[in-house]
Amino acid sequence: MASSLLLSCPVSCSPPNPTTPRLKPISPVTLLHYQPAPATASAFLRTPSLSSNSSLFSRAILTRASIGDAEEPLVGEDSAVFDLEKESALSWVYFTIILGVVLFVLDVVWIDGSTGFGKAYIDAVSSLSDSHEIVMLLLTLIFATVHSGLASLRQTGEKLIGERAYRVLFAGVSLPLALSTIVYFINHRYDGLQLWDLQSAPVVHQIVWLSNFISFFLLYPSTFNLLEVAAVDKPKLHLWETGIMRITRHPQMVGQVLWCLAHTIWIGNSVTVAASVGLIGHHLFGVWNGDRRLAEKYGEAFEEVKRRTSVVPFAAILDGRQKLPKDYYKEFIRLPYLTITALTLGAYFMHPLMRAASSGLQW
């Protein structure tokens, strides 16, 4: 924007007539931080300053747009970027080692029947009710409370023990509870009251499969920053804006809703309905809580991203608030999205192994 004004007005041009309306800055960054200057020629040469209270703009990719362009500059971050030249092989070695250690500890402390507490935890929750539906809801509620609670306390926790230590704490508590909930669902998914049976209906399998595929594609934006997930890189609360975020600001919620609908339609019983109600409720709360946390951290920058994105998929695009780039498809031709695709297909073909492993735990 500033470069466009300089090209249209040489340095030696005279000050504008006070009675003539001046051009308004159109960049969201400028809108957020530009301070009007007196009507002098120097005003056109002054560079708008960025807020020193936010580190977002030092990381954001600011795509310059001239007057009349359909695309708007990015205020948030370009998601799913993976530049091999900037990656450190040593970091990925650390990631592999950390992943192995986490899986080993999870097995010893939680999964293994002779040393772990997983079965004792399931038995304790199951003792509260004979209803599989109630137990399913309780397990989901416990996980949701701990997971969202720790996420809400993240800023305070990171100040006390540091970003990496808090990520380890967050994962160390959340992973066992999530695993227990998933295993209980797999083992008891057909134990409830059968409400309908559509598995033999035409095209239902194809619709359910496609819905599941899309849901997994939406559920895992964490692949945007895997090194931070494992605390190899210092974890950050990101304000993503491109890729899937242009379609919906909360892809995990949309993905979870799709997953729940697909499994509820396919299985069609009360346990699946209970699991779906709990998971959807948790993710709907996450929409509010996630926006609250981003607004607290990024302030006006988040409000600008919120203005041109939507929770409901495609809503911002349809009403004109989101301007898709001409080469929008290129935002998906990136390694993290390709990784999600491969893992999603792998998860589908590994369903028999997952069911056998869950059954072996007898939770």
Write a brief caption for the model.
This is 15-cis-zeta-carotene isomerase. The protein has 363 residues and is an all-alpha fold.
Structure description:
The chain has 363 residues and is mainly alpha-helical. It folds into two domains: 2-59, no CATH class; 84-361, no CATH class. The chain has helices at 2-8, 28-33, 56-59, 89-111, 118-126, 132-152, 154-161, 163-188, 204-219, 226-229, 251-267, 270-298, 300-307, 315-318, 335-349, 351-361. The chain is globular, with a radius of gyration of 25 Å. Residues 1-70 have low confidence and may be disordered.
User: Domains counted in the coordinates: how many?
Assistant: 2
Regarding quaternary structure, what we see is single chain
The tally of strands reads: 0
Largest sheet descriptor: none
**Helical percent range?**
55-70%
- The string of secondary-structure elements, in order, is HHHHHHHHHHHHHHHH
Beta strand %: under 5%
Mean pLDDT: 83
Dominant shape: globular
Distance between the termini: 61 Å
**Low-pLDDT residue spans:** 1-70
Strand-helix topology:
Blueprint (H helix, E strand, L loop, with lengths): L1 H7 L19 H6 L22 H4 L29 H23 L6 H9 L5 H21 L1 H8 L1 H26 L15 H16 L6 H4 L21 H17 L2 H29 L1 H8 L7 H4 L16 H15 L1 H11 L2
